[in-house]
Write a structure and sequence with these properties.
Length: 413
Amino acid sequence: MATRHGSVTARSAGLATATASAGVLALVLVTFVADDETFVPDGARGPAVWAATIAVVLVQSALLVRERRRPVALVAASALPIVLAVAAPSPLFSITALPVLVHSFRAGVRVGFVRLRWWLVVAAAAVAVGQFVNTLDTGRTDHAAVAVEAVVQAIVVVGAPLLPASVVAAQRATRDAQQQVLVAATRERDARIGEAVARERAAMARELHDIAAHHLSGISLLASAVAKQVDTDPDAARRHALLIRAQSTSVLEDLRRLVGLLRSPEAVDGAIETVATVPALVDAARSAGHDVTLDVHRRSTASPAAGDGIGPLGQLAAYRMVQESLTNAARYAEGASVTVVVDDTDDTRLHVRVRNTPPSVRPNVPGGSGFGTIGMRERAVLTGGSFDAGPTDDGGWETRMSIPREPNRPEER
């Protein structure tokens, strides 16, 4: 703000200097170049009139330095020559119109015609009065003609600069409006970018939670089993150690795929998690020692694989729901049997349910944060489906997800 104010003041000072220089130059040219005696005061009054005119022009120009929204300087610069017309009338009086022209143009640019109109009337009246008094004092007696000339000169001096000033003001207003539109567009773009980043962060958080919770929970359970069996059943402990290695490898592969997805789409390999890969997920849970049953219901034996007509986002949502449910069952319902049901008999929706019986032993881990359930619900909402979870009548737990099919499935085309 201080820099802008300094630049405005310097610009105003430069304008005032240029106006004063032009006025003095015009006065010198009229005085020393013109041969017609009507333009040059004669006698002893010559130097005094010349000095008075110079002083008025300098004061009029100095008023341009003042930065004000209200055009008081315009009225002051228009009224000041009246003093000159009364004290030292001469043909040089017309030089005082030059600063008034500059004041009128500047006021038109800064204030605008609508707010300036009454100030213009006062300024024009002051110019007309000064011109009228100066002309009468120089010896003319036709008052009517002098009055008309004074009014015409006032209209020209005060009104003529308003036309280019209006053009400049309109250009400035257009530029300011464009700048505001650009600023608004930039803010909207930044807001959209922020929203997109937030969505991506939420998606990353869901993916990382699903990957870490599923695999690391299994690794933790297997490590507990190994610690118990290392002395009593070395063969079982060795098998579980191999399963821990397999789970760790799966974690690294999933993280590598996620990082590759964040870097570029081309970096992702062909390992896509869909409804068709749910059996492999169940097999992995069984290999970890969990009692898991998978029931897949299709519309007919000749129908395509389960999940046909479900989009990629819906496929991933169903897979993650089963994965998260198996992880929760293994962590919080130790020893419980789990049933995974993929119901593909509905023509419009795919229904997936995961139900576990009550745990056979009291869980020794604290309750979860709830992020897994939130993530499953968010995935269902993103696909246009629904999600629900809650306890069963026998004390177990059940999660349910319903995902709509996309239109124009292959068998409908």
